[in-house]
Design goal:
Blueprint: H1 2-7, H2 17-42, H3 50-92, H4 105-137, H5 139-154, H6 161-191, E1 197-200, H7 201-209, H8 213-219, E2 222-226, E3 232-235, H9 237-254, E4 260-268, E5 271-278, H10 312-322, E6 326-330, E7 338-345
Parallel strand pairs: 2-4
Antiparallel strand pairs: 1-3, 4-5, 5-7, 6-7
Helix pairs in contact: 2-3, 3-4, 5-6, 6-9, 7-9, 9-10
Length: about 350
């Protein structure tokens, strides 16, 4: 790698990997000629026989060939190092330490490979965290349901039956919410931002709200929509639907019984603004950014004990960023409600 690094410091050899090979080959071809000229020049005081000329020509050519091959092999070392780094990661889970400052094609290859491996490793860690979360969050609601069914079976006091059924309903809703979040994540990873199209934002929001009828009824939450009926935007409808779903799910989860949730949307200078406001648990303003971290345990339980795997808001930010937008969380403190605000360009590029 040292020779490659030194050659990369030479101005006209910096940008192109192939130029380094051509430069070495050029020198290798001309070294015998230059050597022979020098030999003849310094031997001018005596006659040279054909045998000597042939010997020195062959010797210089052989030496130059060996040196050229050695140098060219040294130039391949970065490629070999890249291959070894990938192999070490796949077989030993060792993260690479490839240099990323070179400017030629091999330098770009090492930089991209380095970035790809670190990104892959981060995704694998996220998957591991997800599995660890699921091992608890998927089992707990089912355990509650089993326990409650046993109580119902053994309970002779019918008046307590309604309370047990309410608790079962809550456990089932929690379970469905967790499974729904997982399915959203998997489907979104497959679709990403494959297409954009004209979307009526009001209709999209109403479609999402229809999925929360049971949850809203369970807590007797009022929901107000402040969105123009003709509000249109060109974007990925599936991703934005998931975004609104996650924000509304978060609002319902942390809203108190008999509370109010308000959804607002509008356009401002070709920017689509979406705002979800609730009167629920709120949060410490200093924790605003931490809410968007994956598997965050900030305010992990809802007002009725609803569970979560902590990726809804993290996933929401990913969606917004994929649309070149921003999402922020605001609250005046615990118990004072929260506001989630989204700004994204209303006209996304159609690829």
């Amino acid at each position: 790698m040292k020779l490659y690094s030194r050659l990369s410091r030479i101005g006209f050899l910096k940008q192109k990997y192939s130029t380094k090979f051509l430069f070495i080959s050029f020198l290798g071809i001309h070294v015998p000629l230059i050597g022979l000229i020098l030999f003849i020049s310094f031997s001018s005081f005596r006659e040279l026989n054909p045998g000597e000329v042939l010997f020195w020509t062959l010797g210089l050519t052989l030496g130059s060939t060996i040196l050229t091959l050695w140098v060219q092999h040294s130039l391949i070392i970065p490629v070999i190092a890249s291959s070894k780094a990938l192999d070490d990661y796949l077989n030993k889970k060792e993260l690479p330490r490839l240099p990323v400052h070179f400017e030629d094609e091999v330098g770009v290859l090492m930089r991209d490979l380095n970035e790809a491996i670190y990104t892959l490793d981060a995704h694998i860690d996220e998957k591991k965290d997800l599995v660890n979360m699921l091992s608890h969050d998927l089992r707990a609601p089912m355990s509650n349901i089993l326990m409650l069914t046993e109580l119902i079976r053994d309970d002779k006091q019918k008046k307590e039956m309604g309370e047990y059924l309410k608790m079962i309903d809550l456990s089932v809703q929690t379970q469905l919410g967790i499974v729904g979040t997982i399915l959203q994540l998997m489907r979104a990873e497959l679709q990403q931002n494959e297409f954009v199209e004209g979307v009526n934002i009001r209709l999209l929001i109403e479609k999402v709200i229809s999925q929360f009828k049971t949850s809203l009824s369970l807590k007797n939450i009022r929901l107000e929509i402040d969105v123009p009926a003709d509000l249109e935007a060109t974007l990925n409808p599936y991703s934005i639907e998931l975004l609104i779903y996650n924000l509304l799910s978060n609002a319902v989860k942390f809203s108190k019984p008999d509370g109010l949730i308000t959804i607002k949307a509008g356009k401002n200078d070709d920017v689509l603004d979406i705002e979800v406001v609730d009167e629920g648990s709120g949060f410490d303003p200093k924790d605003a950014e931490a809410l968007f971290e994956p598997f965050s345990r900030k305010s992990a339980k809802g007002t009725l004990g609803e569970g979560s795997i902590g990726i809804g808001l993290y996933f929401s930010r990913k969606i917004v960023q994929s649309h070149s937008g921003t999402i922020t969380a605001g609250s005046n403190g615990r118990g004072l409600g929260s506001t989630f605000t989204v700004h994204i360009p209303a006209e996304q590029n159609k690829d």
